[in-house]
Amino acid sequence: xxxxxxxxxxxxxxxxxxxxxxxxxxxxxxxxxxxxxxxxxxxxxxxxxxxxxxxxxxxxxxxxxxxxxxxxxxxxxxxxxxxxxxxxxxxxxxxxxxxxxxxxxxxxxxxxxxxxxxxxxxxxxxxxxxxxxxxxxxxxxxxxxxxxxxxxxxxxxxxxxxxxxxxxxxxxxxxxxxxxxxxxxxxxxxxxxxxxxxxxxxxxxxxxxxxxxxxxxxxxxxxxxxxxxxxxxxxxxxxxxxxxxxxxxxxxxxxxxxxxxxxxxxxxxxxxxxx
Length: 275
Fold this sequence. Notes:
Elements: H1 2-17, E1 60-68, E2 76-85, E3 90-100, E4 103-115, E5 120-133, E6 137-151, E7 156-163, E8 181-191, E9 194-203, E10 209-219, E11 222-229, E12 234-243, E13 246-255, E14 259-270
Antiparallel strand pairs: 1-2, 1-14, 2-3, 3-4, 4-5, 5-6, 6-7, 7-8, 8-9, 9-10, 10-11, 11-12, 12-13, 13-14
């Protein structure tokens, strides 16, 4: 209990002091986005890494994931996503929540992706961000993100994106702004069962974060995932199982000082070749 209280207080103090740098990226969990810079390993959660990934998600899907950071309910991070194909392009919806009753931040975003040709896709997402500490502050901000994906070949893929490039103000009277986040990534599909991805993330006011991830599918219904993030010196492992249109992943992230963070993901997707 003492450890939980100390970790919670430390987490809240860190976030409150750095509220001007609070962005969508800390709400997400990077290990559920491994596969964004690809064609055959993408899923609905890929839009969390790059809005341009929506250009390739031309099928209906809906999913949720959650991570209990450092085994504390107060620092949980939860995301829900959905994609819907249109006559031209694809629609995406994303909702995020982090915290608990006495301290929380949330965001909901509506995105659209369009494939310009066989090699290039673009995407954009508009977000409504809200931050709340009862009896102290409750404020919100509107921002946007844009991204592009370039499929250089069937195996090599790359992309860039920017979140909140205008550094939108956090409320009218706080004098604080949300930080911009810039990303560049590259992925290589060594085979239909093995994929590697390197992503460089620069959030204003923070050091560069390098995310290296791999995915391996020993069987069509089974996948394994692993990676490392330099921004918080954490490593993660995960495994998933696909049953018809349903997929379930479990994961664990490990931080040297703060401990273990378990996570779970549920996903339903109806791809054209599976209809």
